[in-house]
Amino acid sequence: MKIVRFTIGKKTLYGILEGKTVYGLKGTPYRELRHSDEMYRLDDVKLLAPAAPSKIVCLGLNYKAHADEANFTVPKNPLIFLKPPSAVIGPEDNIIYPAMSKRVDFEGELGVVIKQTARHISEAAALDYVLGYTCFNDVTARDLQSADQQWTRAKSFDTFAAFGPWIETELDPENTPVQTYLNGQLKQDGNTRDLIFSIKTVLSFASQVMTLLPGDVIATGTPSGIGPMQPGDVVEIKIAPIGALRNRVVRL
Predict the structure, then answer these.
(1) pTM for this one?
(2) Second CATH level (architecture) for the domain 2-47
């Protein structure tokens, strides 16, 4: 099932996408899926980021090959950091290249969307708290990441948390391909089976630190092959069971 969040006219709604038709939902999809009587053509709606998170919890260095290419030691515990909700954009929205950075990178990742409030959950129960999965681009000002003692500035610019185009509820998170294309050329080609810390481990670990709320997003780390983007470039995160998240890079 593909869950979308969209606007039509002045309304912001959730729906279920089937083919080229969006079937409206009443309220949000986090408690139960309650269908409305409305349906729309996909071409007539504007897709948004499929969740409105209170926070985005990201994983650093969760693929060994990426840790190696970045010259970092593999962490002993999940390395988590936050992106603010003000960084969120959806499919076809522009990634803005900030004036204070001279290198902005793509990082394609599998995103996990939380279904219900999670606090101190076990690994065994972790997936019960998941609504579904989405494509995520952890956009990073690489030069600022290197310059700072921590990663907040480099990871938190407006438009640096792109995800979508929808939430896929049927997916094996332990064996999912993650690919990134820049202007049509394959740059990253990974699989979640190579994660250092599994999604179950990451969810349980994060919930020991902070309460995860419905709609929060966990970005599970990027495989090797990260690289820079330039204004005018088009970046696509493709996860075969989900689809493709497409964004263009622009400079204001």
Answers:
(1) 0.97
(2) Roll (2.30)
